[in-house]
Amino acid sequence: MLATRASEAWRGGKMTPAARVQAAIELLDAVVVAAGDDGAPADRLIAEYFRTRRYAGSKDRRAVRELVFRAVRACGPVPANGRAAMLRLAEDDPALAPLFDGSPHGPAPIGPGEVAAHGGLATDWLVAALAQSGVGGEDAAALLGRAPLDLRVNTLKADRATIELPVPAAPTDAPQGLRVEPGTQVEAWDAFQSGAVEVQDTGSQLACLAVAALPSETVIDLCAGAGGKTLALAAAMANRGTLIAADSARNRLSRLAPRAGRAGAGMIETRLINPGRETEMLADFAGRADAVLVDAPCSGTGTWRRSPEARWRLTPARLARFAEVQARLLDIGAGLVKPGGRLVFVACSLLDVEGAGQIDRFFARHPGWTPQVPELPLGRPRGHGWRLTPYHDETDGFFIASLSRAC
Fold first, then answer.
1. Which of 210, 252, 269, 390 is the most exposed place for a label (fewest CB within 10 A)?
2. What share of the chain is helix, strand, coil (3-state, %, to 5)?
3. For this structure, is 348 an active site residue?
4. Which domain holds residue 19?
5. For the segment 3-31, what is each residue's pLDDT rounded down to a tens digit?
6. Phi/psi of residue 309, nearest 5 degrees
7. For residue 171, is pLDDT > 80?
8. What stretch of H or E contains 343?
């Protein structure tokens, strides 16, 4: 249970600035604990915190959430606790220090010699790994910026050129991409509820574009999750052909069916796969797929703008496990591709061990495959693949590689 010192200040639905800081500290305590034991992400912790405090005003909720994420971004390594994280933020924002006033619902005064958390990008080993992967300076700093809110217009129901939305939207470099103000309540729109638009980062849309899926092809999304990329592939295929959405997580995969129904994507077949039995359970597609997408589990270094606390969860051992899983999934995917077909590897990571290095190791294991440069409007080459970054492309960070099997 989270501490509740700040809760009394919500009587009447309004908090003092000091109480907001105390609430943020309580939440940050939970975020720090979750980072250590692989618990719930910060967004979920914040939602749960306010679920039991429904009398909190919307302005207070937004203000506390903003303080939490500002403090997370201000800290490099994992802080000792939420108070240390908030003290670190107060070093950057002088207006916060006076709010440590010892008031009934606010944080205790800052003690002599009290130490704030360390700042920076991340722990030393992770900063070094990013630098070795060509991510430093402004590129690295941009990883902790604010993410935009991007949409994909679903061509099974609408088109970017003619769709009408309740707010202004700017076109992105994705063929059906639009960008709206962060915080826009897209889920309340008729266009969202009818399946005409989906929330999807421009980089993710371009990763789907790299698959080059065509109507009547056989395409397998090997790590489909909740199906965001699967839905984009269904639209690219004009709802014709064979599209398999496979995943080993029942709870994630179960969310695809209602999303597909809303999007009008009736050609998607879901398959729940037991880990370690992927080849056996997809044996009917061995050597038959025109394209296989491996959107592999990864460190998520390219998504820190959305989940900045993710960098507190990453360790060298965990990174090595991600790389092992990616290699295994690439091998499985390769066995599903027909001669002349393509294998597309995607990782929302900017670390070479999960990107260019991963593909180098694939080629060492699989002679007869060749790299194909994806024709994308954003990004630049990285090894035998393609990289998108927040700094250069204003997208999440992605590594994308398209590999062709010899005929």
1. 269
2. 45, 15, 40
3. yes
4. 7-120
5. 444 444 444 457 899 999 999 999 999 99
6. -75, -10
7. yes
8. strand 337-347
Q: Considering the domain boundaries, does residue 367 fall inside one?
A: yes
Distances (CA, A) of 133 to 139, 154, 332, 374: 11, 35, 26, 20
Q: Report, in angstroms and rounded to the nearest whole number, the Rg of the chain calculated over CA atoms.
A: 23
Q: Which of 75, 298, 348, 407 is catalytic?
A: 348
Q: Give alpha helix (H) positions in 274-383.
A: 278-281, 310-313, 316-336, 356-365
DSSP strand pairing (170-171 vs 177-180): antiparallel
Q: Answer positive or negative: Cα dihedral of 206, 193, 226, 350.
A: positive
Number of domains, the chain = 2
Same domain, 221 and 115: no
Q: Are 154 and 177 in contact (CB under 8 A)?
A: no
Last residue of a domain, one of 105, 120, 135: 120
Query: By the 8 A CB rule, do 246 and 315 touch?
Result: no
User: Please, what sign has the CA dihedral across residues 152, 155, 158, 163?
Assistant: positive
- How does DSSP assign 261-291, residue by residue? HHHT-TTEEEEE--TT-HHHHTGGGTTTEEE
- The residue among 120, 135, 152 that closes a domain is 120
Do 286 and 400 fall into the same domain? Answer: yes
**What angle (nearest 5°) sits at the alpha carbon of residue 387, between those of residues 321 and 297?**
25
| pTM check: above 0.85 | yes
